[in-house]
Each structure stands twice: as structure tokens, then as C-alpha cells.
UniProtKB/TrEMBL annotation:
<comment type="subunit">
    <text>Homodimer.</text>
</comment>
<feature type="binding site">
    <location>
        <begin position="10"/>
        <end position="12"/>
    </location>
    <ligand>
        <name>substrate</name>
    </ligand>
</feature>
<feature type="binding site">
    <location>
        <position position="298"/>
    </location>
    <ligand>
        <name>K(+)</name>
    </ligand>
</feature>
<feature type="compositionally biased region" description="Basic and acidic residues">
    <location>
        <begin position="197"/>
        <end position="211"/>
    </location>
</feature>
<keyword id="KW-0630">Potassium</keyword>
<dbReference type="Pfam" id="PF00294">
    <property type="entry name" value="PfkB"/>
</dbReference>
<protein>
    <recommendedName>
        <fullName>Ribokinase</fullName>
        <ecNumber>2.7.1.15</ecNumber>
    </recommendedName>
</protein>
<dbReference type="InterPro" id="IPR029056">
    <property type="entry name" value="Ribokinase-like"/>
</dbReference>
<feature type="region of interest" description="Disordered">
    <location>
        <begin position="195"/>
        <end position="216"/>
    </location>
</feature>
<keyword id="KW-0418">Kinase</keyword>
<feature type="binding site">
    <location>
        <begin position="264"/>
        <end position="265"/>
    </location>
    <ligand>
        <name>ATP</name>
    </ligand>
</feature>
<feature type="binding site">
    <location>
        <position position="179"/>
    </location>
    <ligand>
        <name>ATP</name>
    </ligand>
</feature>
<dbReference type="GO" id="GO:0004747">
    <property type="term" value="F:ribokinase activity"/>
</dbReference>
<feature type="active site" description="Proton acceptor">
    <location>
        <position position="265"/>
    </location>
</feature>
<dbReference type="InterPro" id="IPR011877">
    <property type="entry name" value="Ribokinase"/>
</dbReference>
<feature type="binding site">
    <location>
        <position position="300"/>
    </location>
    <ligand>
        <name>K(+)</name>
    </ligand>
</feature>
<feature type="binding site">
    <location>
        <position position="295"/>
    </location>
    <ligand>
        <name>K(+)</name>
    </ligand>
</feature>
């Protein structure tokens, strides 16, 4: 069985700084690099590097950067036959990385804005065990792809990032992967619209989702109406929430982080990639945690992912 990743591919332009500039301030960077990125491309590469048969559906630029992106994906082991040129230029992410590894990212969508659910070949969808989606492409394309996958019995994982201003319909999603801040926003929105099965939980128990989850007073996956909620916590690892079950803590892997760009994508891609390979959720999450931690020890996003990673 295969993993089908549907979403974005970008050109990353990364600058390494001592400190982020203040409004109106100009600072000098230590170094800069250009590489292939984009949340979905990163995730597809991570999945391939942990042993999954990883296919990417995306729109690349009708320019040299788009051609370079496809070549980079193929080199990393991603099946890129469904990465097709759009009318516009390659999507671009402008990334600044501070000395402690923190980053800021501004994305110009470019050809990513042209992606639609019709770009996903039915044959690939039919043979996929999982579909992994994220939100750097039009929300309509994401939701329709999720609905089509759900209708065929394919499991759907959503890395709900970057969060849009409008609510995200999770009816056709089996698993949500987010960081702590994104989890809190999703749960607050669910509370506002009465989503999921959260009516029996007092509103104050959702202010900081992690504490009630640890004490068994809340069921955040059920509150969102999904089977599984994965919350990444940076260097502290992740929390696994299955609807109706106690949370499982996946420990982080201590490393000296130099750049956290793309680490969330590394985790998501490695996690769903290993699920596609037949691993349990706990085993897949532990592997994903190690993979993302390894990536944080090098600069870049996709380019930092380990090429000689052992899943055991």
C-alpha cells in the first residue's frame, strides 16, 4: 500500500540570522541557501526516507524552479508523476532562522494556488492506504480530496497548518496532526460551533488542552470529532490522543537544534509514512520523533532530513 501526499511544493529561500529584525530594521545574515520545500513536498520526502512508497500530488511552477523541485523530489525517492506544472511561478517560502533554531516563514503560494482535487489521479487514490493533506493549498481542494478519499475507504490525515481564518471541516478526516498552538485554536473553534462530541466538557477544561488531557478530564480527539489527534510539542515530543482513550506521551529526543524549519513536516511525513508501512501509532510516532529531531540538527527543511535513517 502507498501514501498519497496532496498539497504544496515550494522553493525555500533561507537566511541565517543572529536575531530577527524589528519593524523597519535591516540586519545582515550569516548565510543563505535556496532549496526545494513546501509542507507537502517535505512530508512526501520524509515518508520516502523512512521507507514508505510516497506519491506527491502538487502543482509546481512552469519555470526552472519547478523543474528543479521535481528533480529534487525524485532524487529523494518520491514518486512525482502527479506533480504537474501550473500556469504561475513556483511557490516561494522566505525563511529566516535565528541562532537558537527558531524561524519565521512567509509563503507566496504561486502555482500552489492552482491545485484542485481533480489533480489527484483516481488510480493513485484507490491504491493508497493513507492520504496526507496540509493547508498551503486552496482549502476547497483539501476538503474535496478528503471527501473523495473517505468515500473510497482511504484513511485521511490532515496536518492542519497553516490554519486558515475560516473553520476547517473535519468530517472526512481520521487523524489531525498539529502543534500545541494550532490544537488550542482548533478546540476553541470546535467549542464555538458545537463541533465534535465535546458538549459534556466544561469550556474552562479546553483553555489549555494538554493539562486536562493528561488528567483524563478531556477527550480532545472526540471534541474535534476525529478518531486521532496528534499534537507535536517540539523538543518535548508529542501527545497521541485517540477518541475515548487516555493520551499517550511520546518523549522527545534531546538534540542541539540549529534549525527547526520543516521539523513539523518531517514528523508528519515520517509518522504517516510508517503507518502506511504497517507500524502501530505508538511505534510510528516514536520513529517520527527521532526523524524530526535528527533533522533539527542541520540547516534547511527538506535538505536537512537524514538520508541514512534507520527506522529501528
Amino acid at each position: 500500500m502507498t501514501l498519497l501526499v496532496v498539497g504544496s511544493v515550494n522553493r525555500d529561500i533561507t537566511a541565517q540570522l543572529t536575531e530577527f529584525p524589528q519593524p523597519g530594521e535591516t540586519v545582515l545574515a550569516h548565510a543563505a541557501e535556496t532549496a526545494t520545500g513546501g509542507k507537502s513536498a517535505n512530508q512526501a520526502v520524509a515518508a520516502a526516507l523512512v521507507g514508505a512508497e510516497s506519491h506527491l500530488v502538487a502543482r509546481c511552477g512552469a519555470d526552472a524552479a519547478g523543474t528543479e523541485a521535481v528533480a529534487s523530489l525524485l532524487e529523494a525517492g518520491v514518486q512525482a508523476e502527479a506533480v504537474t506544472p501550473g500556469r504561475g511561478a513556483q511557490g516561494t517560502a522566505f525563511i529566516t532562522v535565528r541562532a537558537d533554531g527558531e524561524n519565521t516563514i512567509v509563503v507566496v503560494p504561486g502555482a500552489n494556488a492552482e491545485l484542485s482535487a481533480d489533480d489527484c489521479p483516481p488510480a493513485l487514490l484507490d491504491q493508497a492506504e493513507w492520504v496526507l493533506l496540509s493547508l498551503e493549498v486552496p482549502l476547497e481542494a483539501v476538503l474535496e480530496t478528503a471527501a473523495r478519499a473517505h468515500a473510497t475507504g482511504t484513511k485521511v490525515a490532515l496536518n492542519a497548518s497553516p490554519l486558515p481564518t475560516e473553520a476547517v471541516d473535519l468530517r472526512n478526516v481520521d487523524m489531525v496532526i498539529v502543534n500545541e498552538g494550532e490544537a488550542q485554536h482548533l478546540l476553541e473553534r470546535a467549542a464555538q460551533v458545537g463541533g465534535g462530541h465535546r458538549a459534556e466538557h466544561p469550556a474552562e477544561s479546553r483553555t489549555d488542552y494538554s493539562e486536562p488531557a493528561r488528567s483524563g478530564l478531556a477527550d480532545p480527539a472526540a471534541q474535534l470529532g476525529v478518531e486521532t489527534l496528534i499534537v507535536t510539542r517540539g523538543g518535548e515530543g508529542a501527545l497521541l490522543h485517540r477518541s475515548g482513550q487516555p493520551a499517550v506521551d511520546v518523549p522527545g529526543v534531546p538534540v542541539k537544534a540549529v534549525d527547526t524549519s520543516g521539523c513539523g513536516d518531517a514528523f508528519a511525513g515520517a509518522l504517516v509514512g510508517r503507518l502506511t508501512c504497517g507500524d502501530s501509532l505508538e511505534t510510528a510516532a516514536a520513529t517520527a520523533s527521532r526523524f524530526a529531531a535528527d533533522a533539527a540538527t542541520r540547516f534547511g527543511a527538506q535538505s536537512s532530513y537524514p538520508r541514512d535513517f534507520s527506522v529501528r
